[in-house]
């Protein structure tokens, strides 16, 4: 999966929250109101080239929609971080959080319980 820029991620968050939109609609709700329509349209088309967004055609215009869910994006992004920085070891990730005291013993126990409960399903 290709990496998103900060602006691209902002756009995706709007599509995930609001659903299908035309670029004009996106422009009205986009936090950076100074972005020109053509600039925003170019960014949306770039997201489509990266397979994050798809479109439906209505005459000469397109209504865009998210081609992947936010959950899929988060899973793949996290997987890339684990692969790149932790030699594809989730154990090393958890160990780092424990060592940095970002994850308490109680949280770790709850995590283990959740994992065990999910194995039973």
Task: Give an account of the 3D structure.
The chain is mostly helical and 121 residues long. It has two domains: 61 residues, Orthogonal Bundle (Arc Repressor Mutant, subunit A); 35 residues. It has a two-stranded antiparallel sheet with strand order 1-2. A hairpin with a 2-residue loop joins β1 and β2. The longest helix has 16 residues. The protein is elongated, with a radius of gyration of 19 Å. The chain starts with 5 loop residues before the first helix and ends with a helix.
Q: What's a quick, concise take on this entry?
A:
This protein is mainly alpha-helical. Helix content is 61%, strand content 10%. It comes from Marinifilum flexuosum.
Look at the structure and give the mean pLDDT: 89
Number of domain units: 2
Broad structural category:
mainly alpha
Poorly predicted regions are: none
The tally of strands reads 2
Specify the CATH homologous superfamily of the largest domain: Winged helix-like DNA-binding domain superfamily/Winged helix DNA-binding domain
- What is the name of the CATH architecture of the largest domain? Orthogonal Bundle
Portion of residues within helices: 55-70%
Describe how the helices and strands are arranged.
Elements (H helix, E strand, L loop, with lengths): L5 H13 L4 H7 L7 H13 L3 E6 L2 E6 L3 H16 L4 H10 L5 H15 L2
Antiparallel strand pairs: 1-2
């Amino acid at each position: 999966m290709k990496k998103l820029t900060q602006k691209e991620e902002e756009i995706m968050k709007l599509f995930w929250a609001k659903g299908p939109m035309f670029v004009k609609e996106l422009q009205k709700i986009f936090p950076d109101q100074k972005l020109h329509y053509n600039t925003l349209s170019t960014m949306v088309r770039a997201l489509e080239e990266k397979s994050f967004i798809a479109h439906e055609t209505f005459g000469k215009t397109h209504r865009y929609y998210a081609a992947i869910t936010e959950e899929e994006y988060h899973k793949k992004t996290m997987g890339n971080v684990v692969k790149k920085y932790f030699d594809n070891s989730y154990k090393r990730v958890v160990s780092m959080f424990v060592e940095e005291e970002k994850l308490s013993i109680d949280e770790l126990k709850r995590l283990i319980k959740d994992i065990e409960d999910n194995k039973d399903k």
